[in-house]
Design goal:
The protein contains nine helices and eight strands. By secondary structure, the protein is of the alpha/beta class. The protein has one domain: P-loop containing nucleotide triphosphate hydrolases (Rossmann fold, 3-Layer(aba) Sandwich), CATH 3.40.50.300. Strands 2-6-1-7-8 form a five-stranded parallel sheet, sandwiched between helices. Strand 4 and strand 5 form a beta hairpin. The longest helix has 17 residues. It is globular and about 50 Å long. The two termini are 13 Å apart. The structure holds 2'-deoxycytidine-5'-monophosphate (DC).
Amino acid sequence: MKKIQIAIDGPSGAGKSTMAKMVSKELGILYLDTGAMYRAVALKAIQSGIDTKDSDKLSQMVQDIDISVVYQDGRQLVYLDGEDVSERIRTPDVTVGASNVAVVPVVRMKMVELQQEIAKKNSVVMDGRDIGTYVLPDADVKIFLTASVEDRAKRRYEELQEKGTLKQTFEEVKQDMEYRDNNDSNRDFCPLKKADDAIMLDTTGFPLEKSVGMILDIIKARI
Ligand code: DC
């Protein structure tokens, strides 16, 4: 049977994971958070004392990295070298480090290989930065989600507050986001970019939940 592929791209905090989770639940297909993979690479670098901007050492490090994605009660868990690191990849230093390691072409090629492998075996909704442009160029539906940096930083700040893991001021959350926006959009290899055939959705000023129904109608009409 033909596998369904749905690509959701956009900058940090635009609501990609919220939307992807809802779509995956509604359609009963797998959700793959590709950012978690880059986060796992960054965690390994930090634990190994490797600068997350050192492309030579990172290229060497990823040769034998073991990253796997496991699903438990519908939740995605990320394993790094056999250990569940799903919580540890959410700290501010790993967040910024993930944006740095994602610049390195060898790192990206390794992660893309894993992502495409998963999409070959399963119907998926994948979120990331280069899913519609590079990982799944023939995806059935492509969505590009965005919102103002102020709104995205506010959402991220409130999300961390709710989880009880907030360790930064609002200004620091916003600065990290601006740093990542710039890094993710201006790298040479596979930058964050809207695919020509992606549907653009700007959620500035209104709750994401409002647009999910509309997006689901668009998706259902195309699959
Ligand atoms: O989605 P996220 O915030 O967890 O992603 C962490 C970093 O990983 C992000 O700053 C850019 C990078 N990333 C990427 O380059 N390509 C992807 N497909 C997913 C994430």
